[in-house]
User: Fold this.
Amino acid sequence: MKEKLEQIQKAAIEQIVSVTTADELEAAKVKYLGKKGELTAILRGMGALTAEERPIVGQVANNVREAIEQAVSDKRALITAAEREKRFEKDKLDVTLPSKRRGLGRIHPITKTIYEARQIFLDMGFTIAEGPEIELVEYNFDALNAPKDHPSRDMTDTFYIDKLTVLRTQTSPVQVREMRANKPPIRIISPGRVYRCDPPDATHSPVFHQLEGLVVDKGVSMGDLKGTLDMFARKMFGPETRTRFRPHNFPFTEPSAEVDVSCFACGGKGCRFCKGEGWIEILGAGMVHPNVLESCGIDSHVYTGFAFGVGMDRVTILKNNIDDMRLLFENDLRFLSQF
Ligand code: DAH
Assistant:
């Protein structure tokens, strides 16, 4: 019986050592140590032994069981380690691989232009005022001296929300808000979005950006306007830049002018950029109309003022040599990442 036991131990350990998976190991364990296992069968037969033999064989049988159990647990540790190793191998991370790029946000070219312009005016002592994009007809047109039949009031030009409310078509209503809320001296700029019923094309967008300027005080003259805009043009487009005032008509200024800057591509000689003109139009301006001052409760016999409105999208396009305005609003990262 002792020999039989030793044979079982030998066979069991050989098998256990040779298995390669947890399932095979479990099967081997059952085969020898399970309820119907070989060792168990032998132990059952111990009843037939004599009283002297029994403890001796029992001792051997215990040793055999322990040896097999030890072999199983050693093997299990090996298999577990091997499986873990395999999993690690499969899930291996190459920490040297380049990561997926998460593009960094950056400042939109229009915003950049507005920041630049804003700083120029802040340096000249202007402060920044804001107004709502949903604006009263009263501020957008009436108080700005726009005649009741002015074409800009048309539904085809202006987005009406209702009879009294529009998406502002210009930043000029901020002038009215400022003059009604404050006493002169007033010296503000107001950059912001404006809206018009224009289908988008290379030079138009239903939403665009203006920067409004307003100065009201005693003795403010056209010369002050010219000086201010000259300074702005030189800082914005380069120290050689000159300005040119052309007579124009706006309801809210008298006299009114459209203002050109000398072409910053050719310096004024005429090139493809300025279409041979030597000049590029960038803003409207003028002396605040007495009717506008009065509609805001400012005595036009005591105070005068100048105002201007710069097209910031246009300036952005010109400064960056962009040939289609739509690019500014499509949010295509391939375009935006160039700035
Ligand atoms: N609001 C005008 C426009 O949208 C621009 C403008 C012209 C603003 C003359 C002014 C100004 O303040 O004085 O075309």
